[in-house]
Amino acid sequence: MNGSPLLLDRAELDDRSEFRDAVLAGLDSTQRAIPAKFLYDARGSALFDEICELPEYYLTRTETAILQQHAGEIGRRAGPGCALIEFGSGSSVKSRLLIEALAELALYAPIDISREHLDATAARLRRDYPTLKVEPVCADYMAMAPLRIESAARRLGFFPGSTIGNLEPADATSFLKRARRLLREDGALVLGVDLKKDPQRLHEAYNDSAGVTAAFTLNLLRRMNRELHATFDLAAFAHEAFYDPVGGRIEIYIRSLREQSVTVAGRRFDFAEGERIHTEYSYKYDSAGIEALARSGGFRIAETWTDPARLFAVVYLEATPQK
Ligand code: AVI
Questions:
Q1: Rounded to the nearest whole angstrom, what is the distance from the C-alpha of residue 1 to the centroid of ligand 1?
Q2: Which of 66, 78, 214, 242 has the CA that lies 20 to 30 A from 250?
């Protein structure tokens, strides 16, 4: 970001036009939807960090406890001298557990779309682990573009947080296939997956009593107001999240509380009372689902670790030979 809010650099202009195109296309479609990745501007990312601390949001805490308990086994399975590649660079507490458990780590390569995020992560890690080779890769790991990581070491991927659950199953499979290519024949992936459970528990995790998840969802309207000169009245929309047992997923929407018209990037959009904009899916898996997902992406489950209440699973996936 440069000094003046009116002067945007090339990357910011590109991001803004990508956001505008996605929003206009999403508001034009019959079932209105905006891709979840746009929830994470600076405020959205800060709100998500707050979500991770909420009493109702068991995911982060539970996954961290599983990793704490089993990092040694992960290190033994991976063996010495591997390169750790993290998809996303947000969760430094979790990455550190693996960095510390992996013997003679050749390299740590976080992949993230946000240059700012990456630079901050890399600087912190270089300070705390002066001998660790940190090679951040600024890229969208969900995109099809091949990722360049120069290292001959065996590769261990890390995709924590159940972010895989935010992908529709077909996209989750194609993500895993790309990860499998990047990690190569002898590679492995440590994957965090939220498990199917009592729907009430799931409902509470996405409808917290402090309203942080609602603020996170509605921040998308704020972002449109700021970046696309939109005219959303935040008080006239609500966060809506529920568990759909058939789809096995939490569905999240922004719901219009009344009939209204809004301008976005110079275009007018009419909303009926109750009309929704879809913002997120958060798929939940059972063991058969994880097994099928791993297989479809070219991996086999070598090990599954879970917590006593079976809320969350961390799986160690090994690449399977591909024809
Ligand atoms: C990032 N992701 C795994 C979160 C989830 O649980 O699906 C995003 C989230 N959205 C609302 N609360 C959390």
A1: 27
A2: 66
Percentage of residues in the chain having pLDDT higher than 70:
96
Interval between CA 205 and ligand 1 midpoint (Å): 9
User: Comparing 22-26, 119-123, 202-206, 245-249, which segment has the lowest mean pLDDT?
Assistant: 119-123
d(C-alpha 282, C-alpha 169), whole Å: 11
Q: Is the beta carbon of 39 within 6 A of some atom in ligand 1?
A: no
Q: Are 156 and 82 in contact (CB under 8 A)?
A: yes
Give the residue-averaged pLDDT of 221-230.
Answer: 98
Q: Hey, whose CA ends up nearest to atom 6 of ligand 1?
A: 282
Q: How does pLDDT run across 291-322, given as a tens digit for each residue?
A: 999 999 999 999 999 999 999 999 999 999 98
For 173, phi then psi, to 5°, come to -65, -45
Q: Is the C-beta atom of 62 inside 6 A of ligand 1?
A: no
Q: What's the mean per-residue pLDDT of the chain? A: 93
Ligand 1 touching residue 161 (CB < 6 A) = yes
What ranges in the chain are assigned the alpha helix state H? Answer: 10-28, 42-53, 58-78, 92-101, 115-128, 169-183, 199-205, 212-227, 287-296
**Of 195, 198, 201, whose CA–CA distance to 312 is shortest?**
195
